[in-house]
Write a structure and sequence with these properties.
There is one protein chain. The chain has 86 residues and is an alpha+beta fold. The chain folds into two domains: 1-49, no CATH class; 52-85, no CATH class. It has helices at residues 30-42, 52-71, and strands spanning 11-14, 20-23, 76-78, 83-85. A two-stranded antiparallel ribbon has the order 1-2. It has a two-stranded antiparallel sheet with strand order 3-4. It is flat and about 45 Å long.
Length: 86
Amino acid sequence: MQRPILSLKPIPKYNLNGNIEYIPPRGYNSHTDHFMVLFNAMRGKGKIVEDAEYGLRAAAPALMANLCYKQEKIIKWDPKAMKLVG
């Protein structure tokens, strides 16, 4: 089994617009890295980088869009309280 590359930093590279674009190192797999961080934290060998609040804030817009579509109505969200409004 190939071990994930956790310690290498992204490589900065200039794109055609002159902006810096960060390229992951060769062989890097974000899914493997994500699960290794999670499992190491569960074993007490590391810490969680993105906690449950971070995950909800990242997923809430897509979840809300699905609810709006399925219920065919506008649903309001309070981002500070992280709750449905009304």
